[in-house]
Amino acid sequence: MGSLQLKSIRKAFGGHEVLKGIDLEVKDGEFVIFVGPSGCGKSTLLRTIAGLEDATSGSVRIDGDEVGHVAPAKRGIAMVFQSYALYPHLTVKDNMGLGLKQAGVPRAEIDEKIAKAAGMLSLEPYLARRPAELSGGQRQRVAIGRAIVREPKLFLFDEPLSNLDAALRVNTRLEIARLHRSLKATMIYVTHDQVEAMTLADKIVVLSAGRIEQVGSPMELYNRPANLFVAGFIGSPQMNFIEGERFGDSSAKTVGIRPEHIGLSREGGDWTGKVVHVEHLGADTIVYLETEKVGPLTVRLFGEHRYDPDEIVHATPVIGAMHRFDADGRVLGSGSRGGLPADA
Ligand SMILES: Nc1ncnc2c1ncn2[C@@H]1O[C@H](COP(=O)(O)OP(=O)(O)OP(=O)(O)O)[C@@H](O)[C@H]1O
Asked: Which spans are transmembrane here (predicted)?
């Protein structure tokens, strides 16, 4: 079992409050990812769950038990850091088994657990090596293996892939997804990487300046963002924001439309504009425009397209794909029913 309940968590460093009342429920077996801009409090929240920071006020419960005064080692959690935090003088096997050894687990049981975790992570050939004799990806797998052998109630990951190169990030990401499926463990994960968040999470928690902006599945956040902040934060390239009046929708202060929900043509379309820049990504082409009617626009086209800077083009939004926001940035509606004015 491994459920987590956070109630009104506040944390201040000196006079500076970095967590401003966090309420969150994580169910047993869920994969929950914290995202948000740099400095919003993601790591502080994770460290508070781990017990590496004490909350200034509020309650942290694991499986219903208050753990605010329980030492980190006694909380039944295992944490995997960006920096691996392996002991350089110990072999892979000893690094993985150290926590269990210190807890007085019998040698035979430790060996069995290490063998099982090493099998899951394809680490068998490296058990006798020291960390310096491993690649970054292998070191991170050892750190994950060390967490697995402890059979924690909660796995906490703090940007575990950010020191790895692009290809290795993808492989390790797939490995973490596979592990989550096979272990059915509760995992809480902090990342800067949108793709990691979208692909791994059952539930994403979007934080900004110490508060939760929205909690939801990746597709809920993408298709039905609760406010301008989430709409702008989730999705890359970013959602286009157009003043309601300029869009022709005076019932909304701002209208949002994702770059893939705008079509481009050389003749005939809603908004005439000039191409400013084009990015060819292979599978997609991103076209940046400056339009007369609605200002700058980013358009994402599937496949390869030839558009040149300074070319005059016409952009047309997909009907029903809009998100509408009020003057406070709260969503009024999204998609085919909520995204358009009533008379459209
Ligand atoms: N030990 C500390 N003492 C004082 N201030 C701290 C301490 N730890 C974090 N902070 C401050 O708390 C705020 C939140 O930091 P935190 O590391 O949780 O953010 P984050 O969202 O994880 O950022 P990043 O994405 O850059 O890692 C920041 O303003 C940071 O400077």
From this structure: none
DSSP state of 325: E
Residues 6+ apart with CB under 8 A from 80: 140, 143, 144, 147, 155, 156, 157, 158, 160
Pocket test for ligand 1, best of 13, 35, 191 (most atoms within 8 A of CB): 13
Instruction: Please indicate whether residue 44, judged by its CB atom, sits closer than 6 Å to ligand 1.
Output: yes
Residue 232, domain member (yes or no): no
Same domain, 120 and 209: yes
Q: Are 51 and 4 in contact (CB under 8 A)?
A: no
DSSP bridge partners of 80: 157
Strands 186-190 and 271-280, by their bridges, are: unpaired
Q: Is 38 in the pocket of ligand 1 (CB under 6 A)?
A: yes
Q: Which residues are bridge partners to 274 per DSSP? A: 290, 312
Q: Please report which confidence band the pLDDT of residue 335 belongs to, taking 50, 70 and 90 as the band edges.
A: confident
Q: Is 97 in the pocket of ligand 1 (CB under 6 A)?
A: no
Average pLDDT, whole number, for the chain?
A: 92
**Domain end residue (candidates: 223, 252, 273):** 223
What is residue 175's three-state secondary structure? helix
Paired residues of 13 in beta bridges: 16
Closest atom, ligand 1, to C-alpha of 47: 18
Q: Distance between CA 106 and CA 125 in Å, rounded?
A: 24
Contact (CB, 8 A) for 35 and 235: no
ipTM of this predicted structure: 0.96
35 lies in the same domain as 180: yes
